[in-house]
């Protein structure tokens, strides 16, 4: 069995424009928005750090080593792109210990901007969102690009981006070998492989909804997610009120992040989701056997505060996304982007 990642459907048909992404790290800037201010006291140190050419897990390992704590004592809310300039928070748990001299932290490609104490752990997904500044270069076939930018502002498929699958789909291939019996002892690699498999099945389900014309259509028994929250409910049928709430983005359609048991969907939606899982039983059954629990993810991703500057062969984009949203999913609906990474001298660990 081979798991491909090029077959997923486009919402606005395949783009005609082409260009380069990440020609240099400064072409892909990400700033995490925490959404609250650390309180200034407590046994957790929140470290605001800028990095370039480094993946999040590797930086966390180096912070743990510098602070003299177990790697599990260092947390982060979200993983950020490796080949980019990114700014994000790390949490270091130091109960009863003196705070390190962060100015002495030396890691090529990383700079600590500030640190603040807080009384609670920095948990996964706690941040409000991420702000992006992208530059796409050497554009061609841009005649309809402005029109697509307007459409993209209304939302795109909430696909997991190529970062989740690793360079040359390495995480995904590793996950498939794991399902076929290979043992992965490295905890981080195993986690990335499992995440890639789960993301692949989600993308496959979302793509099929688009092909069936159900991206904005409520199926009986669909699970609707309340915007900006983890709360959801089952839609019995597409009544007038539900359709209005869906159109206003108060609620969002969702697809399963596969795990043990049946999805929470019912009726027509459950039948559809089970059909996809059955078609790719090696993946769905593997995720169940790994002990993952069923979860949901919205199928629409809406970039906020989208702005752009388009010249003859360069597009500058700025927008914000909620936690878990991939900027590459936005770019995918705009143009066929070739990644041309330069200066990736900090090529450690697995790309996120």
CATH C-level label of the domain at 155-301: Alpha Beta
Distance between the termini: 24 Å
Structural class: alpha+beta
- Rounded mean pLDDT is 93
CATH architecture of the domain at 155-301: 2-Layer Sandwich
Q: Share of helix among residues?
A: 25-40%
- CATH homology group of the domain at 155-301: TruD, insertion domain
Low-confidence stretches: 343-352
Would you report the number of β strands? 16
Question: Could you please describe the fold and organization of this structure?
Answer:
Helix 4 crosses helix 5 (187-211) and helix 7 crosses helix 8 (281-289). The longest helix has 25 residues, at 187-211. The model is unreliable at 343-352 (pLDDT under 50). This protein has helices spanning 56-67, 145-152, 162-165, 170-179, 187-211, 240-247, 267-279, 281-289, 327-334, and strands at 18-21, 28-33, 44-52, 74-76, 85-93, 110-118, 129-140, 156-157, 223-226, 232-234, 251-257, 295-298, 300-301, 304-310, 315-321, 336-339. A hairpin with a 4-residue loop joins strand 14 (304-310) and strand 15. With 352 residues, it is an alpha+beta fold. Among the domains are: 36-118, Pseudouridine synthase, CATH 3.30.2350; 155-301, TruD, insertion domain (Pseudouridine synthase). The strands form three sheets. Strands 1, 2, 3, 4, 5, 6, 7, 14, 15 and 16 form a ten-stranded mixed beta sheet that branches.
């Amino acid at each position: 069995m081979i798991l491909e990642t090029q077959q997923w459907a486009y919402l606005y048909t395949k783009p005609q424009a082409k260009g380069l992404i990440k020609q240099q790290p400064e072409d892909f800037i990400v700033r995490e928005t925490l959404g609250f201010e650390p309180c200034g006291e407590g046994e957790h140190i929140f470290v605001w750090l800028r990095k370039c050419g480094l993946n999040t897990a590797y930086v966390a390992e180096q912070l743990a080593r510098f602070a003299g704590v177990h790697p599990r004592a260092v947390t982060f809310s979200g993983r950020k792109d490796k080949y980019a300039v990114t700014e994000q928070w790390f949490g270091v748990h130091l109960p009863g210990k003196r705070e390190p001299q962060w100015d002495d932290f030396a890691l090529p490609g990383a700079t600590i901007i500030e640190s603040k104490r807080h009384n609670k752990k920095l948990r996964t997904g706690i941040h409000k969102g991420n702000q992006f500044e992208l530059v796409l270069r050497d554009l061609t076939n841009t005649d309809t690009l402005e029109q697509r930018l307007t459409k993209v502002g209304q939302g795109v498929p909430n696909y997991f981006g190529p970062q989740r699958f690793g360079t040359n789909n390495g995480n995904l291939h590793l996950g498939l070998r794991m399902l076929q019996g290979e043992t992965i002892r490295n905890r981080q690699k195993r986690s990335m492989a499992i995440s890639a498999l789960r993301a692949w099945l989600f993308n496959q389900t979302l793509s099929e909804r688009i092909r069936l014309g159900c991206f904005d259509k409520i199926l009986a028994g669909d699970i609707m997610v309340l915007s900006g929250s983890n709360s959801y409910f089952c839609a019995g049928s597409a009544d007038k009120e539900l359709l209005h709430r869906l159109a206003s983005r108060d609620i969002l359609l969702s697809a399963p992040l596969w795990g043990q048991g049946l999805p929470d969907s019912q009726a027509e939606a459950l039948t559809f989701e089970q059909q996809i899982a059955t078609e790719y039983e090696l993946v769905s059954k593997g995720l169940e056997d790994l002990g993952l629990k069923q979860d949901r993810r919205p199928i629409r991703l809406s970039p906020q505060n989208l702005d752009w500057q388009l010249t003859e062969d360069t597009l500058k984009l700025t927008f914000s996304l909620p936690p878990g949203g991939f900027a590459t999913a936005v770019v995918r609906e705009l143009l066929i982007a070739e990644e041309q990474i330069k200066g990736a001298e900090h090529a450690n660990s697995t790309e996120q």
